[in-house]
Design brief:
- By secondary structure, the protein is mostly beta strands.
- It has three helices and 16 strands.
- Strands 1, 2, 3, 4, 9, 10, 11 and 16 form an eight-stranded mixed β-sheet that branches.
- Strand 10 and strand 11 form a beta hairpin.
- The radius of gyration is 16 Å and the shape is globular.
- The N terminus is likely disordered.
Amino acid sequence: MGFIARLATVVAVLAGRSITAPTAATAKYCDESTGVCYSEVSVGVAPITWRIAIPAVGEGPFDVLLQVVAPKTVGWAGLAWGGGMLYNPISLGWANGNSTVASPRFATAHVQPDFYESANHTVLKGSTVNATHWTLTTLCQGCSTWIHNGGAKEVLDPGATAASFAFAASAVPPIDPTDPASPIGIHSEHGLFTVDLAAAKSENFDTWVQQLK
């Protein structure tokens, strides 16, 4: 199978019915060094930990603090905000030297997701690489709303106690880890999970963002 065909498989498999049912229970995690509190889920073989914090709002759209913690054996990891890989923002992350990279993507067909100009990722303090894991801490502006197939506007519900997300990961790093738009290869694991967004809300959100910049 050629490289482009393998890239198409990344999205095609995730968009199809082969994705497993949502798994994992959300926990509360508060970072001792920053005081930032997230809703946290750990999933996959690695496993990969996904942490989300949002402002105390009644409706979207809203900015999102995303933290990803993955073993160094994970070459890249991605989260799809709408629970599938088509027609919603995808946040990719990976290690690059002693720091990490965030990359917004969006797919409208069963091909490699395009770089997504409508979402902006700011890599924040706490984005590090140590002997065993890499951590990406990023502010995403544009991840909580998107235009779905047919032109319908979708918005995350900040009051959802079991919002669905999709993830994928690969042991192989992007072709150019320095470039947020770098091509990626096929995933080695994928699935769905849910997050308690209501528990991820905080009145301290804006303060946290400022201290992490």
